[in-house]
Amino acid sequence: xRKITTIALALLSTTALWxxxxxxxxxxxxxxxxxxxxxxxxxxxxxxxxxxxTGGHFLLELPAGALNTKSKGERTAxxxxxxxxxxxxxxxxxxxxxxxxxxxxxxxxxxxxxDVSGGLGREWWKTVKDNFLTELGGGYINEQRVxxxxxxxxxxxxxxxxxxxxxxxxxxxxxxxxxxxxFKESRDxxxxxxxxxxxxxxxxxxxxxxxxxxxxxxxxxxxxxSDSLTAVSLIINY
Length: 238
Fold this sequence. Notes:
By secondary structure, the protein is mostly beta strands. It contains one helix and twelve strands; from the N terminus they run αββββββββββββ. Helix content is 7%, strand content 69%.
C-alpha cells in the first residue's frame, strides 16, 4: 500500500509540474479507490499516468501505473507497469511506431515481462464524433514466470484496434482490443480488451468507468486463463 501511495503522490506532482507548460506537453493522471466492508472486506487502490509530447511528425507517450488489492488483510492482486511508445506520422492517417513495456504481475503468473515491438498504424475513420484506428506489427517478449515456472522468450505478432466516439460535449466512449501471437507456441496467444466511458466534471477533471479483460490461452500451471477488472477512476488532465 505504501508503494501505491508513493506512486500516486508522484503522479500528482508530475501533473502539477507540467500544468503551466506549453501545449506540446500533456499529462493525464488517473486515481482509483474502492473499499468494501461487511460480508466482504477488501480495498483496491490504483494509480496510473500517461505523459505525452508532440513535436512535428513525432508523438511520444510514457505510460506507468500500479494496482494493489487486499481482501481480509491478504494481498490478492498486485500489478506494476511502465513503458514508452514513439510514433512517426507518415501521412495524415498513417504512422509507424515502436513501443516498449515492462510489467510485473505475480498474481497472473509472472515476476517480470519485457515486451518490445514495432509496426504500422492507420486511422480509418477520423471525424468530429468518431475515430477508428488499427495497428499491426511484431516484436519480442521475454517473460520471467513466478517461482520455478522458469523463463520464456519468443517472437510475437501484434494486432490492435481502437474505436472512440464522442457521445456528447461531456461524455466519451472507447473500446480497445489487442491480440498477441506467440510464434514459438501458437496456442499461447493473448487477448486484452478495455471498454470505457469518460464523463467530464470540469475543465481538468473527469470520471472514468472501465471494464478490462485479459485472456491467456496457456497460462502458467495453477493460474486461470482470464482476469477482469471493473474500475471507477478520477482523471486529472493537463
